[in-house]
Amino acid sequence: MRRKISFLLVISLILSLYYFPVPAVAAHRNIRIFGSYTAVTNPELILRDNVVDRPVSYFIRFTTPHTLMGGRDTVTLKFPQGIDISSNITAGNVSCNSRDVAGLDLSNNILTLTVPSAVNILAGEEVEIGIAGSVIRNPREAGYYQIALYTSQDTKEVKTEPFYITDFEYSNGVSKPKVSISTGESGKAPVYRISFKTSPNGRLTGGVDKIFLTFPSGTGMPGWVDGRCITINGYTLAGQTLTIEGNKITLQLPAGLTIPANGAVELVISSEAQIKNPRASAYNTIRVATSAETREITSFPYKTEEGSSSAEESKAGLSVVVTPDGAGQQAAYTITIKPGLLYRFDSTITGLVLAFPSGTEIPSAVSKEHVKVNGRTAAGVLVNTKKGELIFTLDETLSSNEQIVISIDRAAGIKNPGPAQYKMDVGVLRSAGTILSDWYVIKTASSSVIPPGTTPVTVNKTVRLRVDSILAEVDNLVTVMDAAPAIVSNVTLVPLRFVADALGATTEYNSAGSYVTVKYGTKEMTLWVNSKLAKVNGAFVSLAAPASMINNRLMVPIRFVSENFGAQVAWDGTTRSITITQGNGSGSSNSTPVNQYPIGYKAYVKAEHSYVNVRSGPGTHYPLAGKVLKGEYMMITGTEGDWYKVKLTSGEAAWVASWVVDVRT
Fold first, then answer.
1. Contact 70, 102 (CB under 8 A)
2. Do 28 and 64 touch, CB atoms closer than 8 A?
3. Where is each SH3b domain found (predicted)?
4. Over the Cα atoms of the chain, what is R_g?
């Protein structure tokens, strides 16, 4: 009986605590012992300075649906990676409704704080969390960011509206420059890499405009610098003798290079320039100005990258291929993103954002049929013409650890900007930050399209295909096809439209007559579906197998390509791969050539580099195998992606990045 009475008393006590207010909060019935899966409302960030790397106070406001008890309830703020919160943060650095918090915990940029003991925040009231600028800094990377939050009473996570961090400190200056050096040792001449962006009013014209660099006090400056020691966006300053005034050097843009407004600039100064480090310091910076943006902007402090060579071995791993690549032309774009590159933003991807460089013309609407990701049509496409952005969602989630290939066909209506080197910004939908692509070039005249009715120009083209695979390589750049090559009755069939486009031909399909017309220079070819007959310039020819529709794409025998596109075709039975080579004297024979470009050619160190690194495998993550000096050459024996397998003069095998060498016979 006593046990039963005791049990009833315990139950009564718990119910009284839950349903009846304690004296200090007698009017507040919306208190919970356990949090509920509801969310706070009206989350807002107040940030009075949005420039990169600035120490600035953060204020986060929201409305709480349930009462927060002082000394007991907590607020959790999840800051994105990049926002720097000091590990020395204390309760005295953080306030809640103008009072120091009762306690806090910081782990992996997640800040959990306890409501001040003297404060009870009623349901429906506003909460304001303040963090002192002495313990928090803006990210170093420009982009959009969000802060997530929840409380111990309302445990469903919500986010603030995205807020933008800019890398432009002033309207009349470049973006905040980044500087990396190959060695930080005092008195040594390192390789300098300096990168920044021009402003919306900062267009730089080749042969006219200048870039000014002022090095820190104590830097060992030579009397002059040979222009061959410096490149701007890959263009050497050969022919220039650069004079030094104190610690300031003036660089004249080469005549062939124009950098657009909002354009990326990358300077590389080799160690041969003999600009020597000052005393090692965490505060060494370079000031940058241009003739279009005269205000000097101070860089981030030097970042030392030990062991880097005068050649830029590391690429972003995000390539952009434009076809055709002439200024003002309507073009197809293929963007290839290496596995893992987007993992910093999200492990899964449901949509992507492409920000095209200034000057690119994007129509106000783009059909989703013109955008494919890894061969699948986008679920939806939006265009932000003001920002030059193409935003699209996917009907199937992708892992950021897989290779992603985005194909935008020419019918989308995107037109190339003026002739120059460009980079594209790529981001993950609903995630902060973006990644810049590798450089791509828009030329005055296209190098890839042969106008119908003219004699084809011999252009070196290499197309690699593999049976039963939709991945293909065009001049070592990966792209995705709509249909994979196949073997039918011992005849290898390839997708006609893809191969024709890659080799500079045009195709037009007539669904009513079930035939396709191909124009290549002075040739006009007609092929009929399910027929072994084709017509070339009015004369009928016989195919080794009928042209067939596979996966809604017309497939033709590979021999037809070699005979009519002036190309050589090589078959590798081990890998079931096909290599189509156009140019370099290729003819109509379909015999397997001994060497496919660039195999058998020599790779020389580019003129702007004093040496290049060679590695034990095709990538910068492989160990160094040695160095090759300017003037020496390597024999190319194979390729993989952007890397050449080479034979050194010592007879040893190694790998070298294709972008640091010139290929010659």
1. yes
2. no
3. 600-664
4. 31
Residue 28's CB: how many other CB atoms inside 10 A?
16
How far is 494 from 487, CA to CA, in rounded Å?
Answer: 9
Tally of domains within the chain: 5
Q: Where are the alpha helices (DSSP H) in 568-655?
A: none
Long-range contacts of 615-622 (CB under 8 A, 24+ apart): 615/654, 615/655, 615/656, 616/654, 616/655, 617/655, 618/643, 618/645, 618/655, 619/643, 619/655, 620/313, 620/314, 620/657, 622/655
With a CB cutoff of 8 Å and minimum separation 6, the contacts of 77 are 60, 110, 111, 112, 113, 129, 147, 148, 149
* Domain assignment of residue 91, given as a range: 41-161
Question: Do 327 and 432 fall into the same domain?
Answer: yes
Higher pLDDT, 21 or 607: 607
Identify the CA nearest to 94 among candidates 132, 62, 121: 132
Give strand pairing partners of 99.
96
Residue with tokens 């400056």: 221
Separation of alpha carbons 536 and 524, rounded Å: 6
Q: 434 pLDDT band (50/70/90 cuts)?
A: confident
Residues 277-318 pLDDT 10s: 998 877 899 999 999 999 999 999 998 765 444 334 445 578
CATH classification at residue 103: 2.60.40.740
pLDDT at 585 over 60: no
Res 209 pLDDT > 90: yes
Asked if residue 153 and residue 197 are part of one domain, the reply reads no
